[in-house]
What we know:
Layout: E1 12-15, H1 22-35, E2 39-42, H2 47-50, H3 60-66, H4 77-86, E3 91-94, H5 99-108, H6 111-114, H7 129-142, H8 152-177, E4 181-184, H9 196-203, E5 209-216, E6 227-231
Parallel strand pairs: 1-4, 1-5, 2-3, 2-4, 5-6
Helix pairs in contact: 1-4, 5-8, 7-8, 8-9
Amino acid sequence: MTGLNRLPSADVVIVGEVHDNPAHHANQARAVASIRPAALVFEMLTPDKAALVPPLRDDPVALAKALDWEESGWPDFAMYYPIFTAAPDAAIFGGDLPVKAVRQAIGDGAAKPFGADAARYGLDRPLARDDQTAREAEQAAAHCGALPPDMLPGMVAAQRLRDAALARAVVQAFDQTGGPVVLITGSGHARRDVGVPAVLALAAPDLTVLSVGQLEGPAEAAPPFDLWLVTDATERGDPCAAFAKPAP
């Protein structure tokens, strides 16, 4: 795949990213401008934050301040702002969760903090053993092998909660606007096998979903997306440095 200017139509288009890669956000803005969605859902926003966007969309400084972006932990707002303006009439929705809910999922599982409709979104039942094992291995690798094994099931539960929350926001956006809906999220959440598309297949099987991943470096033989774009990696430090133990 060579670009995101012409994507097949779907009720829901999920456009993934590596969060700190500026090229990925530029591609997302081009995709949104081409699709002209009725609604945009952001992983980076809670529903409360999303409600602040419409009156401030034309003022990047005021919008970043209202969203408390500098303290959010997300990369530079300048990379994200063109996505907000690429479809100026699109309704804005947020799929992020309070930190308290994610922490509760780590300790108690995903169903309780998700609340109503947990069964609809597949959170009322455990994963198959092989699936659970594979997801725990992915969490271990994502955290550079620094997590104790007994933490891994909780990290999987937190990821399931995030996927379900994003899927719920997408369903709400579609129900309120009639679509199409574009979800802006990390490429991990865009995966068809374990991400938001898999949850939507349970919760809203009538929706047509297009999953687009953005990757750095050579792609796998069959990445778990409908379409994918491979870009150069952005310059960054060693992501595992934060997990390194200090010298005695």
